[in-house]
Specification:
There is one protein chain. Helix content is 58%, strand content 0%. By secondary structure, it is an all-alpha fold. The chain has 2 domains: 88 residues, Endonuclease Iii, domain 2, CATH 1.10.1670; 107 residues, Hypothetical protein, domain 2 (Endonuclease III, domain 1, Orthogonal Bundle). The chain binds a DNA duplex through helix 2, helix 3, helix 6, helix 9 and helix 12.
DNA sequence: AGCCAGGGTCTAA
DNA sequence: TTAGACCATGGC
């Protein structure tokens, strides 16, 4: 069976240097909530249309109605606005200071994030990796589908996490890049069956599982 | 475990 | 133009 490193090398060779989410921790936090079950284009639309720079101070100054109205194109406006508020409040507990958050133990931090209503495992891991530079491998629907098509037969996200974390250097940048590559692959190749003939994984990909 | 939250965009007809 | 699938999910 192909290893986690070999998969990474293939993805890298095919798609090139992956992009980083954002160097601004607060933007990562907000966008990670906005993107839940939402197309990325809608997230960019909302983020780009913000009347002022997207800072915690600015978000706190908005009324609930204003915030909901600004993020409406991403859907679930009520729920997401409330989650962004709770997340911002939590960040305020660390004085909006990313360095302070980064000093917290990874598992402690993950649990803190998971306690915030609206933040599940995937969103927590996205925030951990991209905002606070913690090596917590992100498992999402694309990751599961990708591995399914490689016929791995994992039965839980924990198994998947262990597969990646034990097969790679413990490095937050690597995890972030890897996640981005899986997404890029999933979006550009594995959503449309015809493209899969040219896919780098075609020889080992179970095409019958394509949607 | 399955269903619900819900606006926007793309596609096939 | 219209119906329907789908979107970088999480909560109950």
């Amino acid at each position: 069976m192909i290893t986690a490193s070999e998969i990474y090398e293939k993805l890298l060779a095919s798609y090139g240097q992956p992009r980083w989410w954002s160097d601004n921790p607060y933007i990562v936090m907000v966008q990670s909530v906005l993107v839940q079950n939402t197309a990325w284009a809608s997230v960019e639309k909302v983020t780009d249309a913000f009347p002022k720079p997207l800072t915690p101070e600015y978000v706190v100054s908005l009324s609930t109605e204003e915030l909901e109205s600004l993020i409406r194109p991403c859907g679930f406006a009520k729920a997401k606005a409330a989650t962004i508020r709770r997340l911002t409040e939590w960040y305020g507990g660390h004085n909006y200071h990313a360095d302070k958050v980064m000093a917290v133990d990874q598992n402690l931090l993950r649990n803190e994030l998971l306690q915030i209503k609206g933040i599940g495992a995937e969103t927590a891991d996205v925030i951990l990796v991209y905002a606070f530079h913690k090596p917590s491998f992100i498992v999402d629907a694309y990751t599961r589908r990708f591995l399914d098509r490689m016929s791995f037969g994992f039965s839980s996200d924990d198994e998947i996490r262990i597969f990646f974390e034990s097969g790679l250097y413990t490095n937050y940048q690597l995890y972030g890049w890897y996640h981005w590559l899986i997404l890029e692959h999933g979006i550009s190749c594995c959503r449309k069956t015809p493209l899969c003939d040219r896919c780098i994984f075609a020889p080992i990909c179970n095409v019958s599982k394509h949607r």
